[in-house]
TrEMBL record:
PANTHER family: PEROXIDASE 25-RELATED. Gene3D superfamilies: 1.10.520.10, Peroxidase, domain 2. This is Peroxidase. It is found in: Secreted. InterPro entries: Haem_peroxidase (IPR002016), Haem_peroxidase_sf (IPR010255), Peroxidase_pln (IPR000823), Peroxidases_AS (IPR019794), Peroxidases_heam-ligand_BS (IPR019793), Secretory_peroxidase (IPR033905). Belongs to the peroxidase family. Classical plant (class III) peroxidase subfamily. Removal of H(2)O(2), oxidation of toxic reductants, biosynthesis and degradation of lignin, suberization, auxin catabolism, response to environmental stresses such as wounding, pathogen attack and oxidative stress. These functions might be dependent on each isozyme/isoform in each plant tissue. It comes from Hevea brasiliensis. SUPFAM superfamilies: Heme-dependent peroxidases. Binds 1 heme b (iron(II)-protoporphyrin IX) group per subunit. Transmembrane segments: none annotated.
């Protein structure tokens, strides 16, 4: 009898532990409508600010979408990409992030939210919602953004090099880094489609145009890049040009459409990482499917993959904090 009672007590304690763990605030999960009671107008406020910004500066859509990627791939989607460092050692100071733009837009959104709901909406959630809203404003499909992220307390520039996808990445690196975040090969090729909007500095692909093999020959170009496209790019980007901007999806760089896959299928992807999608059977099949069917599934697929990416390494419950100002910890 005593042994049975002891066994029952042990099971009861285990049950209580599991219940406390599952329902504790530390183990809280993201969900759609997280702010429905604490700040019900949050997403409407974000949309209003973003619509106003893009009416004046439509070119910011691409950079603001890219910001969510760069946030999530380093330390998870915790707003760490927004933090400043007095010693210039934060993520935003690292070379891969030095061309990011739109921080002032995130600050503007945060200020509007603070006026409506003081200390409620995290900067990490703002970045995620903004990414969705700039996509929709660029004629992409809407998806429901899960919210409930909290803001991280650490931002380290060195972590960008081993986590972000560089424009000269090969397919092995791309897949490895996506899988390290719990994302699939399909997610990799779908999310690469974000290159349908925005521009790039010549410095991100100039190595494909000049001295590609490193032999000191300027006419030595990447053979995987369409030759006519190579010549067109050389007109816009001279050797050593670091600052000129080129449309990533020529002709529709402000419209979130499926044209990107048509370009990649014709060897006209701007980056080596775009061209690399033809080096894997799964990613190549997806590129060719979207090119042949005018993106029959891409717009829907993109929203699903963005939701998955938005779950990477999140802080929830009582972890992290809700920053008062997005560029510095409280």
């Amino acid at each position: 009898m005593a042994a049975a009672l002891k066994s029952f007590s042990g099971l009861l304690l285990q049950f209580i532990f599991v219940v406390l763990f599952v329902f504790s605030p530390v183990n809280a999960q993201l969900k759609v409508g997280f702010y429905s009671k604490t700040c019900p107008q949050a997403e409407a406020i974000v949309k209003e600010v973003i619509d106003g910004v893009l009416s004046e500066a439509p070119s910011l859509a691409g950079p603001l979408l890219r910001m969510h990627f760069h946030d999530c791939f380093v330390r998870g989607c915790d707003g760490s990409v927004l933090l400043n460092s007095s010693t210039h050692q934060a993520e935003k100071d690292a070379p891969p992030n030095q061309t990011l733009r739109g921080y002032e837009v995130i600050d503007r959104v945060k200020s509007a939210l603070e006026k409506a709901c003081l200390g409620v909406v995290s900067c990490a959630d703002i970045v995620a919602i903004v990414a969705r809203d700039v996509t929709v404003a660029s004629k992409g499909l809407r998806w429901e953004v899960e919210t409930g992220r909290r803001d991280g307390l650490v931002s380290n520039s060195t972590e960008t090099f081993t986590n972000l996808i560089a424009p000269d990445s090969n397919i092995t690196t791309i897949i490895t880094r996506f899988q390290a975040k719990g994302l699939s090969v399909k997610d990799a090729v779908v999310l690469s489609g974000s290159h349908t909007i925005g521009t790039s500095h010549c410095s991100s692909f100039n190595s494909r145009l000049y001295n590609f093999t490193g032999k000191g020959i300027n006419n030595d170009s990447d053979p995987t890049l369409d030759s006519a496209y190579t010549e067109a790019l050389k007109i816009k980007c001279k050797p050593g040009d670091q600052n000129s901007l080129v449309e990533m999806d020529p002709g529709s760089f402000r419209t979130f459409d499926t044209h990107y896959y048509t370009l990649v299928s014709k060897r006209r992807g701007l980056f080596q990482s775009d061209a690399a999608l033809l080096d894997n059977s799964v990613t190549k099949a997806y590129v060719e499917l979207q090119a042949a069917t005018k993106g029959s599934t891409f717009l829907k697929d993109f929203g699903m993959s963005m939701v998955k990416m938005g779950r990477v390494g999140v802080l929830t419950g009582t972890a992290g904090e809700i920053r008062k100002v997005c560029s510095k910890i409280n």
